[in-house]
Each structure stands twice: as structure tokens, then as C-alpha cells.
User: What shape does this take?
Amino acid sequence: MRFTESHFCLSYTIGVVHAFRVLEFQSILERLAGFCETGIGATWALDLKPAFDLPSVARLQGETADADEVYNKLSPPGFQGVQDDRGELKRASKGGVLDGRELYRTGCALRTGRAWKQLLGGQSDVFPHLAPRADAITEDRKLEEKILDAVQSDGSIPDSASTRLAELRAKKKQTGIRIQERLQQYLSGKTRDLLSDPIFTVRDGRYVLPLKAENRGKIRGIVHDTSASGQTIYLEPEDVLQLGNSLRETQGAERTEENRILGELSKYVGSNYEMLVANLDILAELDLIFAKAKLGHSMKGVLPKLIGTASIKVDGGRHPLLDPDKVVPLDLSLATKANVLITGPNTGGKTVAIKAIGLFVLMAQCGMMVPAREVELGPFTQVWADIGDEQSLQQSLSTFSGHIKNIAEALKWAKPGALALFDELGAGTDPAEGAALAAAILKTLDSRGVAILASTHYGELKAFALKNESFVNAAMEFDGKTLRPTYRLLMGAIGASHALKIAERYGIKTEVVEEAKVNLGDQHLELADMMQRLETAQKLARVAQSEADRRADEIRVTEQRLAKKLKEAEDSAKRANERASEAIESGLRELRLEAADIFEQLKKAPQSPTANANVREKLALVQEKGNRLARNFKQPPRHSEKPAPRLILGDSVRMSGLAQTGIVMAVEGKDVTVQMGAMRMTVLAHRLEKVVAPMREARQNKLSFQKSLHTSTELHLRHMRAEEAIQELDKFIDDAVLAGHSQVRIVHGKGEGVLRKITQETLKKHAHVRDHRDGEATEGGQGVTIAVLK
Assistant: This one.
């Protein structure tokens, strides 16, 4: 971050760097760096600094929100293979030749950049903070393919890199075969007994035979080496020598051709130096942004809601460096002119609460998620922190002096909208003077518009917060029965220190504690007793309020459920009326057609008793059909409503007026949820009758019931082999049909498109699939296939 005023740079350095250290923010940055896939991104993560204005914080949070959305809806390609090759690229730009591995990484970076551009490019309306970055990536498909066709991941160059290279390697291979065939004649012929071992080997790149030293001269050739014992010489036979020379020449030509290919590619890379470095920077930025989203998910974090005034409100916050299963959630609201003073016993969690709030602010203003249920943040202009033991032997500073030095910097440089965090403000000196100085510091910073979160033991500061409208007391809860802290922060409460009780619990003799009470005097004891009674009364009030809130929530949930049931009943009645109308219309249409047919026959047929009898018989059948249709849709009398059967999960039932049986999925009072084939409905219990299904149907119903309970509507095929993916897909479709699902989502990723092709070919042939399509952009794009089931 750049600042125009030198004194503001100084305040930033003094304030934020010290706050980073005492809040242990570097540990957060190290965790963030661990989620980066690129070296550049990890380096930038470790050097991350918060923004201190609303537009910048909003931009950073918007980037993380976009990344979170991408992970939830799409299949991002990742950043594998992207490394910090800026030095290598610079060398290439100056005429240097890169080796195969360096060139391969450059090709991978081009491929990765192209993948991200295809995923996010041109989608500023969907991902407004990430799409412009993707649009800025430069694609060079020609250079990418030229590199990846010419070098492999291990840096080797394949035969296909050039025609000349393929020819030379073919010649080298053929020459090697001829040499081995000639040597094999020595191993299997009459010269076999002249050798130490029936093998040939290589010395200094030449094929040689292990000839016994006493047989020197019996095979003409050149000696290239001798064994350590001197009993074996390694001889290249004379008739192999020319072939060996030819092999050496071919190998030299091969190296020359490989160097030519590397040089040509390096020259091409060097001429695109600026573009390649710019792409690397963009990919590293994206990597860091996505690392923030991944870190947020790992901490079960949320994106803060941003507001304009310097403040923070935390609901269910968890210190990000503590065990999330053990830490007690924190609720706190803090703003300028709404400062918080925390009181309570030692080991009660005051320091943890202050550090957590400081970390939440730094994380949020760096664009990270915050581990909490909900967070509302108005960015602070600075962060000042004085926490822990500031004693310095090197500077001959006492603990008190160390704290005062930090506080003096805050008093000197703090500006409106800053956040000041003080742990045990005024401690380390005479209590009366310390309390008076602490009150003056709080009052001064408050008058400058600084938001303050501080902890104290001083009773004078508790009284100060009560009398000052800009401050709110808060207390760390303490269980008076167990004499243990609960680590819950209670806004509006005043905490007693409980020093005497804690001292007695940790082994101080009773007579010593009683002597201390005498020394305190009646007035202090009465005040302590009054505060304890107040704390107990507040606890009872909180319990009562909690119970009232719980009951209010139950009433609200019940009201919502009843409203939902009423809506479902209305919708069900509407659908039933629509189906009845369709059935009646269909029946009447059939009757009209039959009647018209009869009259047509009557017109054409000759008048005779037999013909008339035939017509009367057909008319009687039409009339019977009409009567049957009328009976089917006659409303049953209300007084005939039968008692509701006793039903449990999994029972087979039949609904009045329907022949099809179903399975009971849920029973809530008089409401029963029934699965009938692919349709699920909620009906009143008295409209159902329990039936005993045939064995085969019972097994099918039970299987369908279990499937509908456990079958997901989404399948992930990424990283599977083709055969495994087809098997999983077939089983998944069968289970989904049996569970009554009408539509499913198959996630196969983009990659090279192999799994996508296999998925869609399998769906096309499947008997239970009506149709399939690629996912929309909001559903995962071409990384997802949506299947509609029959």
C-alpha cells in the first residue's frame, strides 16, 4: 500500500506491524499461504496487508465472494504447474536458452491461463471482480502448443518435436541394434570362453566386451577400461568400432538438434517476456484470491456485511487460531462512541476475546472470510493493539513502561475511525494512578473518534464506563458454583474479579482469605457482594430471555409450518380439481363420440327391429358409462369420514379414490407425507388406508423408500477412469429413478472433455433418461451435465 504523507506511513508501520505481532496475524497469513498453489501467490499471502477504506475493503471482499461463487457453481481448473519462472523468462528475454523443464512450465502456465480465461472471461455481469482479470490474460495457443508438443513434463524432447530429430533417433536405434547383434555373436560363438562373463557393457559411451586379460590380442579391438583387479579388460571389437563411431556421430547430431529446438523455443518465449510475466502475475493474484475462499471454507467462515461507519458486530465468532470444537462462540458489538470495556476474573477469556476481534478486523479488511455465524463490518482506518507482556530487557523497559510506549504511539498517531485494543489497560503500576491514567487514555481516544475495546480489573474503570455514554460494560461470565470461567462474553454486564474465591480454590488457606476480607473493609465487601448479586440477577434475566426467545422461535416455526401446510392443501385441491376437470372432460368427450357414432349408424342402417334393438343396447352402454363417470366424481358425505389409521415410516398405504399404493415417508400429527412413484404429496391421515402389499411389491416399496431417503441428486465423476465412471453413472441413474427423482446433476469437470463425452453417450443410451443437456453457467457450465429422468 502506498501513502502520500510520510507521518501516516510511520503510523501505519508502527501501528499495524505491532498489531500483527501481538495479535498473531502472521499465523493467519501462513495458513493462507498454505492454501496457495503458486509460489508467487504464497509469497504475496505472507506479505498481505489490510485496506483501511470502504471501497478497497469492498473490492477485496468482492473478489473473495466471486471466488466462493465460482467454487460453488463451477469446476475451476486450479493452478497446478504454475511456478515463479520470472527469472527464467528474464534470462530467455536476454538470449539465454531454457532447459526442457523450464519451457514445459511456461507451456503449462499458458495452458492454465487459457483455462481460466475460458472459465471466467466475458462474465463481468456474473463475476465482476474476477472476470476483468481473466479478460486481461493473453492467450497464445500457437506458443503453448509449440512448447507442449516439443517438451515433456520431465524436460525430455519427444521424437515428434521435429522430423530431423525423429530420423536421427531412428538411426541411433537401428545402429544400436546392429552393434548389439554383432556383440551377441561374440557372446554365443567360439569366442565365448575368452570372456569373463557372457555379457556386453558400455564404457565411455562405447559398447565393449569383458575380455579375460590373459586373452589380450585374441580379439582385435580397442581397450577402453580395465577392472580393478586387472584380470578383465573391456574391449571394443574392431568390427564394432565403425558402428560405434557412427552411433557417436548420430548422438552428437541428436544433441545438436535438441539444442536447436530448445534455443528456438527459448527465443520465442523471450520475445513474449512481458506477456508471460503479466499472465503469471494475474494467475498469482487469482491464486491468492481463491486461497482466501478456501481458507474461509476451512474455518466455516462468512463474508462480512459491509457498512459505512467504523464498527464491527460479531455473532457467534470463533477465534481463528483456536480449536473450533472447543472455543466458546463470541457475540460482540463495537463502534466509535460505543466502546466496550470487558471485566471479569483472570483466565476468563478477556484476552482471547480482544485478540479475536482484532483478527476479525484484520482478516476482513484483507478480504478474508471471518469464522462466525454473521459479521457486520465498517472498515477501521487503523488498528492499534497493546496486548501481553511488553517488558524489554534490552531497552530497560518495565512491563508498565512497555505498555505506555505503545499507548503513547496510539495517542500520537490515532485518527478518527481507528480501532484500539487494550488488554489490562493501566496495569503494572500503582492501582489508583493506573486507573486514573487508564480513564484519561480512554477519554482522550474516545474524543478523537477511536473505537476502543479494552479489558480491566479496576473498579474505577467499571464505574467510568457506567457514567460515560460512549462506553458499554461487558463481562466474561464466571460460574460461582464451580469457580470456573465459562468464557462467554456478556454485553452490558459488570464482572467481578472473584480474586478471593479463586485464591481459596487454588489452595490459599481459609484464614489467609478471611484476613484479606478484613483488610478490604466492609464497604468493599458490600460492593463486591452487590456486584455478585447483580451478576446473578443478570444471569437469571438472560436465562428467562433465552427461554422467551426459544418459545417465540417455536411459535414462529409453527406458524410457518401451518402456513406451508395450508398452501400445500390449497395447491393440492387446485391440482385435484384440475385433474378431475380433465378426467370429466375426457369422459364426456368419449361419450359424445360414441353417441355420435351410434346416431351415424342409425342414419345409415335400414329400419328393422334387429337394428333398433342393437342401437338401444349401445345407448344403454353409453348411459351406464355416464352413470359410472358421475359416481366416480360424486363427493362423499362428510359424516362418513373414517378414523385415521395408525401409521409409521415405511408403511404401504392407499389413498381414497386412487388404486396406486404408496410409501409413508413422514408422519407429523394428522399430516402424512406419501411417496407414490415419482410423486410425493402430503395428505391427511384419515384419507389413507393401510394395505398389505404382495411380497414382491413390498420389497420394491421398501427399496424405493430406502432409496428416496438416501439417494442424492448429484454424482461426482471427476478423476474416475472411464469404466468406473460408466458403472457409477448407471447405478446412480437406476437409484435416482427408483427414488422418484425427476432430474439429476452429474459433475464430470471440463478437463480434456473425455468424462463429459462418456457421460453424455451413456445418458443417450439409458432407457430411463428422457433428455440431457450441459449445465447453465450458474449450474457449472460444461463441467456439469443435467439429466431429465422418465
